[in-house]
Design brief:
Layout (H helix, E strand, L loop, with lengths): L11 H50 L9 H6 L12 E4 L2 E8 L9 E8 L12 E5 L4 E4 L9 H6 L7
Antiparallel strand pairs: 1-2, 2-3, 3-4, 4-5
């Protein structure tokens, strides 16, 4: 009597080939996923700056008495969300947001503000953005790709010529 053993399953070579294929797919997909996350963070930062600009215009004409407000004041007036207005320097979607303001001085200077969004991690694999953004009371959004480790300042924002389309 001749009995054959029926072995079912995968050989070691077949399993190694499957693992190699999964590794190749991961090596292709992970950089694209990181780039997508950075792009989403940048889009969120631009949207947050537009929200801050709208909130500042509303705050100036209502609760501010002609002056603009910091992030906590805007959140206190229910003009921005609690994440963005949690502190005067807030973080949201991989960016740090700051608002600087100059109050109205009658017959001397008008009120002004500048809002900036800077990537939390400016370089490397976990980079959260490739541009820093800023906006003043005129509503023009500026973007800058150099010196990401240095936050965009109000003075730098006024000198930046990289205007982003709305």
């Amino acid at each position: 009597m001749d009995t054959k053993k029926q072995q079912k399953g995968f050989s070691l070579i077949e399993l190694l080939i499957v693992v190699a294929i999964i590794g190749i797919i991961a090596a292709i997909a992970i950089p694209n996923l990181l780039a997508s996350r950075r792009a989403a963070n940048e889009g969120s930062a631009q949207s947050s700056l537009r929200t801050i600009h709208s909130a500042e215009a509303t705050y100036q004409s209502t609760a501010g008495g002609g002056n603009f407000g910091l992030l906590t004041a805007l959140q206190g007036a229910n003009l921005i969300d609690a994440v963005l207005g949690s502190a005067d320097t807030s973080t949201k979607s991989g960016y740090t947001f700051t608002v600087a303001k100059v109050d109205l001085v009658v017959n001397v200077s008008p009120a002004s503000f500048s809002a900036t969004g800077n990537p939390i991690v400016p370089a490397g694999i976990p980079q959260t953005g490739t541009r820093k953004f800023g906006m003043t009371e005129n509503g023009v959004m500026h973007g800058q790709t150099d010196a990401l480790a240095t936050p965009m300042t109000a003075a730098e924002l006024l000198l930046t010529t990289n205007v982003l389309g709305n």
